[in-house]
Amino acid sequence: SGTTDDTASVTYGFVTDTGGINDRSFNQTSWEGLKRYCEEAGLVENQDYSYVISEKESDYVPNLTGFAGQRDLIVAAGYLFEGAIAETADQYPEQKMLIIDVESLDVDKYTNVQQAVFNEHEGSYLVGVAAAKMAEKAGKDTVGFIIGMESETMNKFWAGYQQGVYSVNPNMTILYDNVNDFSSQEKGKAAASKQYDAGAYVIYHAAGGSGMGAISEAAARREAGEDVWVIGVDTDQYEYGKYGDGTQSAVLTSMLKRVDTAAYNAAKAVAEGTFEGGIVRYSLADGGVGIPDENPNMPDDVREAVDEAYNAIKDGTVTVSETYVKE
Amino acid sequence: MKKHSQLKISLVAVGVGFLFAFLVVIVAGRNPLNLLAAIIKSISGFNILRPNEPVTLVNTLNWLKYAVPITLTGLSVGFAYRTGLFNIGGEGQILVGGTAAAAVGLLVDLPPIIHPIVCLVAGALAGAVWGMVPGILKAYRKINEVVICIMMNYIGLYATSWFTRACLPIDPATNARTIDLKETAVLGKVFENVPSLFNWGFLVAIIGIVVFWFIMEKTTFGYSLRATGFNMEGARFAGMKVEKNVALSMMISGAFCGLAGAVLILGEFGYGRIQTSFDNFGFDGISVALVGGSNAIGILLSGLLFGLLKSASSNLQMMNIPKEVSELAQAVIIYLIAIQYVVILLLDKFHGKKDKKLISENTEKGDDQL
Amino acid sequence: MTYAIEMLNITKDFPGIRANDNVTLRVKENTVHALLGENGAGKSTIMSILFGLYQPTSGIIKVRGKEVTISNPNVANDLGIGMVHQHFKLVDCFTVTENIILGKEPTKNGIVDIKSAVKKVKELSELYGLNVDPNAKIRDITVGMQQRVEILKMLYRNADILIFDEPTAVLTPQEIHELMHIMRNLVKEGKTILLITHKLKEIKEAADECTVLRKGKYIGTVDVKTTSEQEMATMMVGRDVSFTVEKSEAQPKENILEIKDLNVKDSKGLYAVKNFSLNVHAGEILGLAGIDGNGQTELVYALTGLCKAESGQVLLKGKDILKLPIKKRLDSGMAHVPEDRHKHGLILDFTLKENFVIHCYNKPPFSKHGILQPKVIDEYADKLIEQFDVRSGQGKDTPARSMSGGNQQKAIIAREIDRSCDLLLVVQPTRGLDVGAIEYIHKRIVEERDKGRAILLVSFELDEIMNLSDRIAVIHDGELNGLVYRKDTDENELGLMMAGSIKKVEAVI
Amino acid sequence: MMELIYQMFPLALMMATPLILGALGGLFSERAGIVNIAIDGTMQVGAFLAMVCVLIFEANGWPYAKWVALLVAFIGGAIFISIHAIASIHFKADQTVSGTAVNVLAGGLTIYLCQIMYNGARSTDTISAAQGFAKFNIPFLSDIPVIGRLLFTNVYATTLLAFALIVVSWFVIYKTPFGLRLRSCGEYPQASASMGIDVVKMRWIAELISGGLSGLAGAVLVLTTATFYYSGTVHGLGFVAVATLIFGQWSPWGVLGAGVFFGFAQVLGLYSSSIPLLENLPSEFFSMFPYVITIVALVLFSGRSMAPKASGEIYDAGKR
Ligand SMILES: Nc1ncnc2c1ncn2[C@@H]1O[C@H](COP(=O)(O)OP(=O)(O)OP(=O)(O)O)[C@@H](O)[C@H]1O
Ligand SMILES: Nc1ncnc2c1ncn2[C@@H]1O[C@H](COP(=O)(O)OP(=O)(O)OP(=O)(O)O)[C@@H](O)[C@H]1O
Ligand SMILES: [Mg+2]
Ligand SMILES: [Mg+2]
Hints:
The complex is a heterotetramer. Chain B has a domain at about 65-305: ABC transporter involved in vitamin B12 uptake, BtuC. Helix content of chain B is about 75%, strand content about 0%. Chain B is built from 14 helices and two strands. In chain C, about 30% of the residues lie in helices and about 30% in strands. A seven-stranded mixed β-sheet of chain C has the order 18-21-22-15-23-24-25, sandwiched between helices. A six-stranded mixed β-sheet of chain C has the order 6-9-10-3-11-12, with helices on both faces. In chain C, strands 2-1-4-5 form a four-stranded antiparallel β-sheet, covered by helices on one side. In chain C, a hairpin with a 2-residue loop joins strand 7 (about 105-110) and strand 8. Chain C is globular. Chain D has twelve helices and two strands, in the order H-H-H-H-E-H-E-H-H-H-H-H-H-H. Chain D has helices spanning about 1-30, 40-60, 65-90, 95-115, 145-150, 155-175, 175-185, 190-195, 200-225, 235-245, 250-270, 285-300, and strands at about 135, 155. Chain D has one domain: ABC transporter involved in vitamin B12 uptake, BtuC (Orthogonal Bundle), CATH 1.10.3470. Chains in contact: A-B, A-D, B-C, B-D, C-D. The complex binds adenosine-5'-triphosphate (2 copies) and magnesium ion (2 copies). One magnesium ion binds near residues 39, 86, 405 and 432 of chain C.
């Protein structure tokens, strides 16, 4: 029942990309955002709202159309959904959908599709500042960056991070590794190990499942008494870097991409009848990207520097570019 | 021991597989009726739990859509298997086939109908080249094709990713795929108004099945391939070009996978992809071929079966059944195919009882007459 | 007189077939007892029962007067029973010693004590005059040697009742002779021997008593000294059989096959065939005699194209075929009955009819434009089955695998003969077959000769060579060491040529 | 340059260890005559069990979690492979088909169990790094010139365990009566049977060891490189282990060499940017590199396959 009549409650469907529901990254986070709203609204899981996992990209359209016409809002995360969303919207022009990380769909044509994008470069700038400050404090001059694959979105992370690091110290060395894989912890771990061996003090990963290897390497090194840090991505990855008795973590901070907020907002808007298509940009200024408030590992002075950068971006004194090439 | 047709064994396996799935669902405390409903809905679009729900073609078409690529990869694995080769290199062959098709679809201008055909040919050729490497190494250097196939999978993964990035026009919005293929190259949807990507690529699968059957069973070439598969030395003795057969068989096998890749790109995606991991269509092909007994009709049927298990995944999840259930059912089916010896024994026992009953009935009648 | 073995009223059923039907076998201690019967008579089955590989459906087994149940080969071993199987049970890539000690390894601190094992093997080998190299790999030694390894396996286990299942099928005349000698030696040392064979001459040579089976049933036990070969053959087959092949004088015509200075290397890169020259004429059977491993295999492989020759010429009807691929050679007029029927002769998983067309499947009328013509193939298969009396369960649709060895061989012969080639190359055509089958196949070969074909017969069995050939060539160490007319020679002379003691190349035509 | 190699080697060993263990598992199976392409699935089961075990121990504050986890994974792998063993040994299964079934089963089963155990999540919970294995320098040994830095610096205990298992396997397979019998079962089981060896029993033992080692491989993978188990944890490494086994020509030392080679080639991709001449090549070239080199190596060494002869053959006591 696509249209809400007054007695029925609002219903939601969530479709994961191939990362699966427990990717400890944006699928999981988006789902949690949606779930949070639904719980607040007193909806019943698996009845009013549920998720479907995509095994391969070929599952995207069938999974979306499976929900289409049945749920008031369908949420999907990941730029690879672009074509599938368009296909579904062509067939179900009335169906409200939220797609995260896509902004290239024709807004005039797909009026019921909300495209949520994030200023990852701004958030990455912040963690860049954090990384550089930490390194400076420890008397180190090298930080690292690990990427899962080169793509437009991924490049925004890299651009923002560089600008952040160089804003603190233009002479800082940034190590860069592309592991070409989003699901190989070993490669992520090896890349992190390589960078730490080469002197990196803090590593920022944007490598999905492979990044878990980087976090595991940092935790293992801290466990062994080495002084190194790692920065998580998408969601607060603090707990994945646990070491020692489990209360400490090697995760310095995380670049939050509030996909949960996007999902939450869209779900709420649909229930309240205020949902609109078009592009919604989540920036640092509106809390769409940022770092967690709680950062037990971050010393106050570093925190201050990050806050400073935060304010500067917010009031426009600093603009972070989506692309960046160091001259 | 009686002869039981492959079909009968497969049917028993499938039946037990589904029974097992029901069992798992019950054990997990979910409603088995939902499983049944999901399967029926995936086949027909009719939801037995909500009879009022409008029935559309989407589900059926999605089922067929899923069956197309795995039928093609099943043909691929089956073709090699009949020649005594294990083609576990489907993943790589699909990737290169898809990429070749995308390249032709992006870079070449051709009229409609001709264009997709040329793309398909390019995909088949690329797949054939990828299959040729293990084929030739097996034939002329006696290197185990399984290792080479596994290596070629990974090489294909990275080679296509590099090639696409370096040589094809990349979509600037994502930087993670090519721009859309030329309009003329796309394999259109069969039913424009149904939200399923079921496309004209299904014809490729049907032609593939006919070609497979014809080559294997009807031609002299197929005869010599089968001879090579059963007894390489014997075939050599009879003057067959065993090495050539092995290499050719692997190439044809690769071509089937290449076609699968091309159909996916031309029919489903409409753009060239940059993948960082496999889609497992090639591995699915192994199951399809094995359950289908590596013959054309069997592969068609098991392609439909596994297509159903894939397409049911979405309905299962929506009906609150973990999608892993379909994997477990698949595992059971393949396992029963593996141990068909036992299945046959059990069937024999079953039949034996019936036969004995018949005999005793007959003798009784005979006694009456006396 | 005590019996080493008594197998009383043994019956063994396999699904659908009764392999042994109430068979009784009594073997006296310290004798060689032969077991004679056609293919499928149940000889191997009853011996497998004695060795614990199968359980009898009914019947009693007594060993040295005591009733026993032999549930597996270990029990047999413990009872002192050892068996040399028809097909050797040796691991190719193991050494002689490893094969012998397998399952009963001497150890030192948990490690296999190879040194002491080698010593023990050497001792045993010397004691019984077996003369094997304990450290050689099985794949590097001759078939005759492999058999001695099998014998050593039993001796190593202190077996005193030794079963030999068709031990001579794979041996050369010299080796057979030596084996018989070894057997007598063993009996002298206190062992009891059970010998399964089709060959009456061997029974005459080595055995004391002989039990005859036919179609699973016990026919009788006779004293070998007082029974003639003819009588035993009649018991075995159930009718009179003739041992000699009836044939008229050969009428040799033109040269069909000319081998000139052929040199071939073996798989190890050594010259196996050296400067070999030979002609075979239409209308004659030329028998190539020689001890196994003297280059016959390589010669045949070089002729058929399975391996490359180093130098020389092979002319078939005047045309050099040495550079041609296998197919072309076959097409230019060569038919070939290979030595190994399972590996080379047949595709065991194909049906009989598919096997019949293995050479001609891609030629009209069996195929048109690359497409098989099932009707034509069916008719052809029916024709061959009838002409050559090939017997099988489901006629032309029988999988070759499920046919008996004799019928498999008949099928191959039928196929090759029907190709009507000018040259028929037959290698070991009757290996492991019973007299009935042998008789039939020999007859067909002679018929082909009379039709004017040139026939090159390669065989390790001197009897076969003597019976069939018009001329006999002898190969020794890769060289032509003899070429004589059949009528001008005898077994003794041939044996000397085969051993390389004399050289006599005179029947050159 | 040497410094680079010193850095690369421990990483290569880390990557190699699960491959070596998986391949060693395959080795026992194939040496006894059973084709094992189920290594991948068994690794998944091992990885899953190891994680679950550590999580339980962690929650209860029990010590030695990771070591117990290795043991549990070994036993679990052995039990799991029994499915394949029954089919192959008793039910005359086509071993490739059966192995495929077992692989499919593992993926479904572990994730299904995850959902039951972890609130419907399709992965396990996360463990603390303290629970996993960490690299360390072995006292004294790491001071040996060259070798010390290559092999004994920054190593994982699990890598040493794998080395030890290679030596043990070599000893067992080539020096003990058990090994001789095992190999005979893989070469010519009818011969073994005629010598009174219980082929069925031997194959069972081999399969159990094989499953155990593969399970161990999964556990080592997850406890050295990851902090939780999910469906992508093994991501096809079991098939690379099969390749390692074949590349290593079914011998323990060969497996060691092939495994280290694979590991090294993977790591080379990461280090390419620091190596002159290689730095400008696209990253895909390095990802591809190990696989290309493997093919080249196989071509160079071709023509002398040492595959056990009876591997994959159905053993039938009555067959003659
Ligand atoms: N494992 C088995 N299963 C079913 N039938 C069998 C089996 N082994 C033997 N037979 C049947 O038992 C009969 C006797 O076979 P056996 O091998 O004992 O004959 P044989 O006298 O040794 O023949 P040959 O001279 O060919 O070796 C054959 O007709 C065969 O069909
Ligand atoms: N496992 C089996 N099941 C059923 N029948 C069998 C089996 N093994 C052998 N036979 C049958 O036993 C008969 C004799 O078999 P056997 O292998 O002894 O043949 P053979 O004539 O001795 O040939 P070879 O020279 O190869 O030994 C054949 O008719 C064959 O069909
Ligand atoms: Mg026999
Ligand atoms: Mg026989």
